[in-house]
Design brief:
The chain is an alpha/beta fold and 353 residues long. 31% of the residues lie in helices and 29% in strands.
């Protein structure tokens, strides 16, 4: 008996309408008008009103049939970035395919829960694929779980919106911005060179030539490449392999209360990692319970940004210790914690040098 009931329930679920029909504002007004005409026709027995009522109901039926033909033959493929920084548009592309061989589909809208905005395809010819685009912008880091793509249309009269859900699992990671101003770390092993010993050390041994880059405060004026500077209009210096090319560890202290300053420290860590990698140096990342060994390149940056998008702050976490050589480790924190074990401490709220 129980099996029969379950079998009957599954059959009933299978035949339930797989669409959602929503009223637009004009559709609600139109439906109210149909009810008014129906009441008037019943109360008066006027044949003309009955004819008008039939025509209006026929219009509703036609709208439902045509809108069904717009969403039923559609398949959608999502194309988009794996991650996007805060404040920058996520360029989402939806390939809308019309699987019908004879008739085009019109005015199809694509929306996803969790993504602001929508994509729109005015027409998809029979048997062809049209690309619809949406560029949502996020203001907070984190992850967005993408589960369902909703295909909807208000064709042909705009009276009702018919929706159909397509299950397309995915994930979009919202990275912290790497554009936050942050000062250059003054590591323990570099402080004496900041006072003048750096120039003397370079004079004795500069190492092998690596590349040229724009001048930064603290560079030796003798490294300026004057011909390149004249061509570019800005100071260009020669860069040599040496101790400055050594990698660093960027360490983020998560044992702080959540809030604005904590989020600022996340963006400062991201900016410090991105700048170090742009300089061609290795960078590793560490936080409580998270570790990225030193590396270079775009994959290293994306891996660290993925981690930074997911970190959570908790004042009960234990203090963070340097994961590598302390003199090459930079602590980024939003609290007042002293970083005696680290080569330098960068705190949120500090002005970039």
């Amino acid at each position: 008996m129980i099996r029969r009931v379950r079998s009957l329930w599954r059959r009933l679920r299978a035949v339930r309408p797989p669409r959602r029909l929503l009223f637009t504002r004009s559709g609600a007004v139109f439906t109210a008008g149909i009810l008014a005409v129906g009441l008037a026709a019943v109360n008066t027995g006027n044949n003309l009103l009955f004819l008008l009522l039939g025509a209006l109901l026929g219009l509703v039926a036609l709208s439902g049939i045509l809108s069904e033909q717009m969403v039923r033959p559609v398949t959608v493929t999502r194309r988009g970035p794996r991650g996007v920084p805060v404040g920058e548009p996520a360029r989402m592309r939806y390939e809308v395919t019309n699987n019908r061989s004879r008739f085009a589909i019109y005015t199809v809208e694509i929306r996803e829960p969790g993504l602001p905005g929508s994509a729109f395809a005015a027409m998809v010819p029979a048997g062809e694929t049209t690309v619809a685009r949406n560029e949502p912008v996020f203001i907070r880091r984190g992850t967005v779980q993408l589960e369902v793509v909703t295909v909807s249309t208000s064709f042909p009269f705009g009276l009702f919106r018919k929706e159909r859900d397509l299950r397309i699992p995915g994930e979009l990671v919202v990275w912290p911005s790497t554009r936050h101003p942050v000062r250059s770390p003054v590591l323990s092993g570099d402080r004496s060179r900041r006072m003048g010993a750096r120039a003397a050390s370079r004079a004795m041994h500069r190492g092998e030539y690596r590349s040229m880059r724009e001048y930064r405060p603290g560079d030796d004026p003798r490294d300026v490449h004057w011909k390149a500077a004249a061509r570019s209009g800005s100071l260009i210096v020669r860069e040599y392999e040496g101790e400055d090319a050594a990698g660093i560890w960027v360490c983020l202290d998560l044992s702080a209360p959540p809030g604005g300053r904590a989020e600022e420290s996340v963006e400062m860590a991201a900016a410090l990692v991105a700048r170090t990698l742009r300089e061609g140096r290795e960078v590793g990342f560490a936080a409580q319970g998270r570790l990225h060994p030193p590396g270079r390149g775009e994959a290293q940056l994306e891996g660290i940004l993925d981690t930074l998008a997911r970190v959570d702050f908790d004042p009960s976490l234990p203090p963070l210790a340097p994961p590598g050589e302390p003199t090459r480790s930079v602590l980024v924190t939003s609290g007042r914690r002293e970083g005696g074990a680290f080569g330098d401490v960068v705190r949120s709220g500090e002005e970039a040098a």
